[in-house]
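Milestone M4 deliverable, item 7.
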Amino acid sequence: MAQKSQTGGTERSESSLLYCKSDLKEGALQWVTEPPQGRVLLVLSMDNTCPTSSFDMDLCARKLQSLGVQVPMDPWKRLIQEGILRPEVRRFLFYSSRGFQIAMAVVFYISLWTTLYSTLQLCSLGHSWGAGVLVTLVALALTVLVILVMDCQQRRLNVNTDVRLAAVNEIFIKHSIILGITDVLDGPHNILQLCFVHFSPEPCLQALRAHLAHLQEKQAMAQQLLVIFSGCYVRLLVTGRLPGAGAGGHLGHSSVPCLCQFIQTTVLHTHHSWAR
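Output delivered:
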């Protein structure tokens, strides 16, 4: 069960089982109790309909420290503020949110139904009950098609948000954490959620290097792909939109693919359809 903070942050109860130890030889922190791959460790929330709201970075730093993640706060705080919390990016997130898209779908349906019915009336066909049923079915079918197109767009790499998180993920992936941003609808409010997901990069990094070597690509590209697409991966993971997992994944018996599988099947094979 999740516990919410006073500022809207959410911490998974499983995180209380995690603590760390120092590797005196290398000066690094290591997990004593390793959480499963893909586990959401921390979720910070903010109301995107309120211009003055923001993520509580101080709370986030304290929660990360309680999880044993000792990351200097200033670099990633600055990158999140510049990459996600700028007014133009927040406006984009609002206009591409689920709530706004649902509102647009309703407006589209009403406008289309009215236009089609008025057109049939001009042709002297709009006074029968069959015309009303026909108009309703056509408007409904086209609205569903629009919703499916918008949902497909949501699955693509979002340059305005996912790629902006790449610099932050470059910092956190060294500590087995990747970040992604998504939104939920809470009544009239558009709530942005910054999700911190446990992800140990080594298995996927090795698999991607082997795959890229087979494609005769540069070895250095594997790390870049993990960092760039980690934000998109977290967004789809949290919202349940990842495709089904294939054999040989690194998430155990999970029904969703690991990050390297996601990159191989949706980026390297059909790269042109995953960026906008």
